[in-house]
């Protein structure tokens, strides 16, 4: 019976973990999907906007493409940071609780 | 062209040496399918870069940019952004919940034989749709670069890949990918520095020069993809399709834990991302220095833009430096193809041996050593089949298959995988419904589209992902709702979630 309770506790931690992941990943996912698919949509439907020059021969289109590279890298690094600091300890707690239950 | 051959034989000797070394270490099923899950994040990151950058990326992106400007840059950006999906949703859950294949994940969630069969179908269709154009591309490219005939080129590529996979399994495949990734990044860095040195390290000069030469329209979108919905469809296909490619998924089983899987995605995002960004500059530089006419004259599709740029930077045609640079880049292109076809062969043979033979046919009751031999045999058969298909594909328009591979991955494998990992109510009916709807809609729409039927297309989009992806999700949801509720499965979902997010199982 004690084992069952520990498994139940592990499930609760996992539920908290999933909720934390959703809170963090949902906005990030919206950012990169809108960032890239939105860029392709603008390229398709608003070609003129992409043609506006920013610095010398560089236009908005290429600048947005460059921005998307940096955005992807920034999102990846910030996810890794949050995962190491927040998600991993939660996962370890749940795993430890289950291991206790097995023993 | 003989320099190419010499450099390439050198690469081949190194990779065969690696295969000999790997073969002696490959004994168990875990060795064969997943290099015993002992790779580091950096190793897997380089291998992923080698896995994911096909010749289409290595040569195609530069060529598209050289000939069509901004659309080429879109093609190059997508594969990087796609890794955000892999990082956020796929890499760690796969590592935690599976052993070697997509089929493992679906099987551990559903525990039904028919759902396993659906996962096998998704794996094999995507892998063959990807493998066949790679073989055909290899034939064209090796012929172009070394002068040997198309048929022999395909046979040569196919035999090399069979040797790597059948003898060395995942360990050899991984190191072939790492060698290729290092060579590819090295070649890219050399070309980039040499090209930039000609414009005082101001890349904006390439934009100004090419705009002056080819007009303002060159730096605008829509030169290659005329239909705006095709642009969006391409974007969606990339961003969600990568996460549904079985040969990319298997890479996450080669590391010991979720943390390493995560770190390896960050590695590949910087390695491959930097290379993809480079291809845009290579393309512009090639258009500037080599010129579109010369690029088109060498290959209509622009695939030789990068080798020609390397030749120009080395000192031009006929010079020692020029021929050396051309030979090096061309040899790396061939190595690129070898790394990708090996990964596809390995992933397909894993699915056939592990998912189909061991788990579907024999209910898991197969001894480890026997399983390895079945997997090796499967690799040989798949390799021979790939050679035959590659030879048959000569002169056939295989572009539709490339689109199909990524489209089926996004529309069938991706919805089924994501819903398996995140939706409690999802069941075997949903797996079958999602796979069937995604597969059938992708294949049907690609077949009646312009890639297959040209001007007689019954439907306007080259890439159907924008329609087939929602159909795939819809099929999965409807399939789940129509099928009777699987209460056992829903009760197990908590335990499955625990496994997916922590890597520990309650039993």
Largest interface: A-B, 54 and 55 residues
β content of chain B, as a range?
A: under 5%
Number of domains of chain B: 1
Q: What is the name of the CATH class of chain B?
A: Mainly Alpha
Distance between the termini of chain B: 61 Å
Indicate the percent of residues in helices of chain A: over 70%
DSSP summary, beta strand count of chain A? 2
Strand order of the largest sheet of chain A: 1-2
Report mean pLDDT of chain B, rounded to a whole number: 90
Number of domains of chain A: 1
Helix content of chain B: over 70%
Order of helices and strands of chain B: HHHHHHHHHHHHHHHHHHHHH
Task: Write up this protein.
The complex is a heterodimer of chains A (103) and B (507). Chain A is mostly helical and 103 residues long. Chain A has 3 helices and 2 strands; from the N terminus they run ααββα. The longest helix of chain A is centred in the first third of the chain and has 44 residues, at 2-45. The model of chain A has no long low-confidence stretch (mean pLDDT 87). Chain B is mainly alpha-helical. Chain B has one domain: Sodium/glucose cotransporter, CATH 1.20.1730.10. Chains A and B meet through helix 1, helix 2, strand 2 and helix 3 of A and helix 5, helix 9, helix 10, helix 12 and helix 21 of B.
């Amino acid at each position: 019976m004690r084992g069952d309770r520990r498994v139940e506790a592990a499930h609760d931690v996992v539920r908290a973990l999933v909720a934390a992941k959703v809170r963090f990943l949902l906005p990030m996912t919206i950012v990169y999907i809108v960032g890239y698919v939105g860029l392709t949509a603008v390229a398709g439907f608003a070609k003129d906007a992409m043609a506006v020059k920013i610095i010398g021969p560089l236009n908005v289109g290429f600048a947005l493409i460059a921005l998307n590279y940096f955005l992807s890298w920034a999102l990846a690094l910030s996810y890794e940071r949050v995962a190491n600091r927040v998600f991993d300890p939660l996962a370890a707690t749940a795993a430890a609780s289950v291991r206790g239950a097995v023993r | 062209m003989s320099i190419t051959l010499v450099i390439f034989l050198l690469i081949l000797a190194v990779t065969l040496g690696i295969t000999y070394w790997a073969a002696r270490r490959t004994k168990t099923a875990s060795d064969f399918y997943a290099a015993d899950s002992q790779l580091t994040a950096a190793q897997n990151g380089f291998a992923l870069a080698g896995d994911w950058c096909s010749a289409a990326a290595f040569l195609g992106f530069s060529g598209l940019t050289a000939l069509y400007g901004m659309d080429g840059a879109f093609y190059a950006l997508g594969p990087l952004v796609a890794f955000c999906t892999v990082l956020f949703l796929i890499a760690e859950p796969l590592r935690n919940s599976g052993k070697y294949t997509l089929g493992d994940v679906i099987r551990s969630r559903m525990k039904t034989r028919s759902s396993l069969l659906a996962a096998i179908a998704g794996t094999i269709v995507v892998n063959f749709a990807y493998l066949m154009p790679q073989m055909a591309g290899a034939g064209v490219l090796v012929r172009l670069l070394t002068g040997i005939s198309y048929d022999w080129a395909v046979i040569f590529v196919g035999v090399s890949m069979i040797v790597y996979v059948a003898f060395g399994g995942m360990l050899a495949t991984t190191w072939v990918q790492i060698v290729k990734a290092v060579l590819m990044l090295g070649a890219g860095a050399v070309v980039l520095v040499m090209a930039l040195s000609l414009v005082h390290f101001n890349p904006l000069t390439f934009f100004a020069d090419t705009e002056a030469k080819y007009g303002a329209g060159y730096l605008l979108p829509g030169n290659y993809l005329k239909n705006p919905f095709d642009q969006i469809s391409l974007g969606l296909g990339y961003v969600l399709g990568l996460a549904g490619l079985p040969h990319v998924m298997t890479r996450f089983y080669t590391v010991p834990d979720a943390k390493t899987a995560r770190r390896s995605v960050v590695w590949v995002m910087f390695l491959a991302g930097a290379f993809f960004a480079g291809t845009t500059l290579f393309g512009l530089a090639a258009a500037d220095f080599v010129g579109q006419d010369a690029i088109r004259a060498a290959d209509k599709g622009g695939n030789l833009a990068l080798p020609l740029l390397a030749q120009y930077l080395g000192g031009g045609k006929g010079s020692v430096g020029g021929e050396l640079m051309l030979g090096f880049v061309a040899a790396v292109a061939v190595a690129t193809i070898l790394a990708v076809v090996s990964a596809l062969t390995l992933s397909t043979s894993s699915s056939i041996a592990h998912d189909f033979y061991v788990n579907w046919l024999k209910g898991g009751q197969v001894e480890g050593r026997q399983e390895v031999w079945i997997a090796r045999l499967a690799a040989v058969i798949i390799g021979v089949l790939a050679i035959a298909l590659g030879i048959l594909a000569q002169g056939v328009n295989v572009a539709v298959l490339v689109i199909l591979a990524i489209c089926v991955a996004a529309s069938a494998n991706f919805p089924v995988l994501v819903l398996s990992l995140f939706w409690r109510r999802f069941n075997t009916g949903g797996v079958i419904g999602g796979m069937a709807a995604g597969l059938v809609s992708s294949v049907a729409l690609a077949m009646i589209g312009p890639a297959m039927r040209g001007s007689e297309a019954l439907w306007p989009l080259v890439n159907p992902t924008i329609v087939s992806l929602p159909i795939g999700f819809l099929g999965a949801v409807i399939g789940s709702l129509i099928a009777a509720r699987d209460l056992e499965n829903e009760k197990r979902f908590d335990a499955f979630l625990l496994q997916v997010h922590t890597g520990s199982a309650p039993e």
